[in-house]
Amino acid sequence: MQQKLILYSVLVSFFIINPVTHAIQARSDKEQPQTGVSGTAVQSVVPVQTQSASSQQQQAGSSNTASASSVSSTFNPLGPNVMCSFLPRDFLECKEPIDHRNNATARQEKGYGCLRFGGSAYEDVEHTKVQCTVYTDIDCYGARTFFRDGVPCVRYTDHYFVTTLIYSMLLGFLGMDRFCLGQTGTAVGKLLTMGGVGVWWIIDVILLITNNLLPEDGSNWNPYV
Ligand SMILES: *[C@@H]1O[C@H](CO)[C@@H](O)[C@H](O)[C@H]1NC(C)=O
């Protein structure tokens, strides 16, 4: 009785599993030709697309030359060329803002430039204009060298806030944070007093977090970590 039961169950399971495996095989067999078909379909489609694209380009090129020959003197706002001064910063090579080192007369003479660098809040940062030139291979309309306004008077000299904060917390008793910021005088004092017997150590961490301990050279924290 038991043997019959086992035989029966084996037979049933075989009949159940066999079609399933066949189905899986069939599906996997089916899938391969399908991908092959789609691949060939893509291959057959792509040249058509490129052909149409190239013909479009040719059309665009012919219309481009036509418009360039017919309308060369006046700016056509619907035309393909953008005003050079409207181009985003990616297409321009801009000079660094001029540093007048707090010399107001020099700034007045020049008409632009920065008296002071640095600051965190937008209102605290001076803004000035800089001279920008469009890269040679970029096509645009108008003067290729112009002034762009609203450039912030900030600079970065590889000072990172998080790194300095970690230095301040772990090696503050050696004055390591202040050495890294370039404040050598106070750093030596901090080192000799072992971080002001712990008090200065804590105070400098608080100063860092509240943005009152900054790089000595007036640069900003590097935003690119
Ligand atoms: C400020 O700039 C003017 C013009 O460049 C210069 O003559 C003058 O000596 C400068 N003053 C200082 C204090 O550097």
Describe the strand arrangement of the main beta sheet, using strand numbers. 1-2-3
What share of residues are in beta strands?
5-15%
**What's the total helix number?**
7
The radius of gyration is 35 Å
Low-confidence stretches: 10-71
Bound molecules: 2-acetamido-2-deoxy-beta-D-glucopyranose
**What class, by secondary structure content?**
mainly alpha
Q: pLDDT average, as an integer?
A: 76
Number of strands: 3
How would you portray this structure in words?
This protein has helices at residues 2-70, 104-110, 161-170, 176-181, 184-192, 194-197, 199-209, and strands at 92-94, 127-134, 145-152. With 225 residues, the chain is mainly alpha-helical. It has three domains: 1-71; 84-152, no CATH class; 161-209, no CATH class. Strands 1-2-3 form a three-stranded antiparallel sheet, with no helix packed on it. Helix 3 runs antiparallel to helix 7. The chain is elongated and about 75 Å long. The structure holds 2-acetamido-2-deoxy-beta-D-glucopyranose (NAG).
Tag the structure with descriptive keywords:
225 residues; mainly alpha; three-stranded antiparallel β-sheet; 3 strands; elongated; binds 2-acetamido-2-deoxy-beta-D-glucopyranose
Give the arrangement of secondary structure elements.
Elements: H1 2-70, E1 92-94, H2 104-110, E2 127-134, E3 145-152, H3 161-170, H4 176-181, H5 184-192, H6 194-197, H7 199-209
Antiparallel strand pairs: 1-2, 2-3
Bound molecules: 2-acetamido-2-deoxy-beta-D-glucopyranose.
